[in-house]
Amino acid sequence: MRRARRLVAEYGVKGFKFHPSIQGFFPNDRSVAYGLYEVIEETGTIALFHTGQTGIGAGVPGGAASA
């Protein structure tokens, strides 16, 4: 939360982009995310969430990364 405030105050960050399935969190987990959401609200920044499939491995046989 401190880092988010600093990014907004010192670097002019306008929003935060999340991809929960890649970042390994549930967006509705109060113990993990809600503090950050409060900072986003306080600073008037934007929260953008990716949902659905990631596209990782798209076009690769089997849909996985090549070895």
From TrEMBL:
Q: Which domain of life is it from?
A: Bacteria
Q: Pfam families under this entry?
A: Amidohydro_2 (PF04909)
Q: Which GO terms describe its molecular function?
A: hydrolase activity
Regions that span the bilayer: none
Q: Which residues are in the Amidohydrolase-related domain?
A: 2-56
The family database entries (InterPro entries) matched by this protein are listed as: Amidohydro-rel, Metal_Hydrolase
Write down what this protein is called. Amidohydrolase-related domain-containing protein
